[in-house]
Write a structure and sequence with these properties.
255 residues, alpha/beta, TIM Barrel, 7 helices, 12 strands, binds iron/sulfur cluster
Amino acid sequence: MQTLKLKEGIIYGPVNSRRLGFSLGINLMPTTYKLCTFNCLYCHYGWTNIHTGDAMAHLSDFPSVTQVKEALESWLVSNRTPIDYITFSGNGEPSMHPDFDNMVEVALQVKEKHAPYAKLAILSNSTCFDNLKVLSGLSKLDIRIMKLDCGTEKTFLKLNHPCKNVRFESVVENLKKLDHIKIQTIFVEGVVDNTEDEEVKQWIDYLRYIGPDEVQIYTLDRPSAEKGLAKVDKEKLHQIAQRAEKVTGISVKVF
Ligand code: SF4
């Protein structure tokens, strides 16, 4: 089976998301390639084309603040479809956009005017907020769903394939800086397995250290870049959730 096609524009959906209900997507990334600080084996957009932390080298390929404002406003004015969330996601890591903080400001203004009932969210890989402007943008969102897939650097390197300069410890420290986050974790087996006992133990220790409001765990439900990955069965996911809840006292939901 093929991985998903990249988003062809700025606004997409709304999609009926397991975790966010009806969610209208905002893609801040280029539309002809995937740009990301990670190259996750499970990515449903396939392999990362531009694997970097240096978004400035691709400046002309990003949408401008005005383009995003107009695209969101136009969709909200001309559609009556009810939405629960407006979510930054799409062809890579949304917080890599060089003007991310202003994008959040503009999306908030447009949302307040045309869809005040909706919440503003992000699905992020937690790598970009040593930049204070990114941190500022993230702090204005209603919901921050941040990725932490592993308990060890070894598995992080194999599963998420970070670009150079992105260290596992700095991802953890980034997550610790933000209040009221939700952690998202995908569990997989096969060529990489992050369900092993020691891996899960260390992941739980990091959850306790970071202190999110909630943890969301799930497994593959779409074709992934790497074909040698396998789904984890639901019973095992529930066992991991119960174990993490018992140690941390944090709500861990299985999706
Ligand atoms: S962080 Fe997200 S977009 Fe980037 S490679 Fe991983 S799954 Fe794909």
